Amino acid sequence: MHRVSDQLSDRLPYRSGFREEKDPHEISRAYGSGDVARYCWLLSPDEPLDDAARIDAMRQLAELLSSPENKVKAIAAGVVPSCGRLLTLPNPRVKAHAANVVAALAWDFEGATALHADPTLLFNLNHLLSEDDEPCVEAALDAIVNLTSAKEGIGSVLGRAYMPEKLVAMASDESTPLSPRATDLLFHAFANLTKAAHGAEVCTTYHIVPALLRVVKKPLHYALPVLRSAILTLWNLATHNYGKIEAIGSNAVELCTKVLIALQAGAIPCKDKPDLQRCLAGTLMALATAEEAKPKLLAVAVAPLVACLSEPAAAANAAQALNYMAEAPDGLLPSVTLLLDDSETLLRVFALRAIPALTTLLAQQMRPGLVLAAFQRLQLLEDSISAMTQSLHLYEHLARLCMPNDDAPDLSILATRVLHVAAQHGPRTATRIERAFATCGIDDPSLLAAVLEHVSM
């Protein structure tokens, strides 16, 4: 009660004073420690709020839940059961805003734990995915993406088999197109779920691979985040060895390589080209561990993977993919041939493993100058001379190149230097080189002396 001062009583008509009235259901910020608890109380479905007021309360509460402390307060005030019931109300806007509150809670460990413990909330959230209202579907998917961003949330979703089954069914159903944002969130959820081995197994069980390859097959028909999430999901599946053979049999190698080539050529507009190259190279790397993929990779992916070596973000994945491909009988030579112009990268990727391919190139007399330059750099590596000595007929090929050549005089100088460095390794290597000269019928004493100079036999 506010009373009028005695000095002003003759000037004001309201001599009885002003009586303050308070509406307990008014939607307003308290700006104190009780604001979160008050919003949670207001959101109880038992409170007599109209839909507009309830939506306003949920919107303001979602803003407050950006603070971890406020999330703990909201959970303690019972917001999770309230949201679970609000998700079942008939008004689609109410359901969408309730899902937004769930999405705000799902980021933290405490929120994910509380959502997992509630017996009905995730079931009701999953039911929103079947709504005709686009904002409802988008809000539900947003909550699932936030929930699956953490390990605990992934377990909560996978523990309810109806959730991954519904998600895969949505991606596989071409008759009911999703909004662009819903599509982005859906494939983002797949990328999150398949980070866990169990998630990869479950999604493969529900046949997610065709839906992923449909996106990769038509990269320009989808937003770039959708393409990235689809490729990342394929990478996760191949890493965990679930769906890998199915993907290879469905031309995943060829499709991913086609996207990589288009990206490198600038045919796919991309703001973060290095990151997408990293994901594509990583997917090819994971697929390359399967024997079934190696012939396909050697047929189409050598050149684009070699091109990835110049991109720092993708270089490690591309190098590992090329090494997996090199395990095939004819897998090393194509990559080494393309890398001859950059011997530093060649040795960084293959190191001593490149020796058999370099020997083959010498035998075929393909770009011998670059091959000899690569051998010179390779000899700086530990155990390189032993590896060279074990390479069949390498010293014979080098001995022949030591012969004077009027057309390419530098070749004999380079070959002599390579053999001279090898001969310094020890008497056994020097003897092996001497036998190579004899096998080739080279009996020029000055030539042999240049190779074996300062070598104690």
Automatic annotation (TrEMBL):
Q: Which InterPro entries match?
A: ARM-like, ARM-type_fold, HEAT_type_2, RSP14
List residue spans for each HEAT repeat: 332-366
Q: What is this protein called?
A: Uncharacterized protein
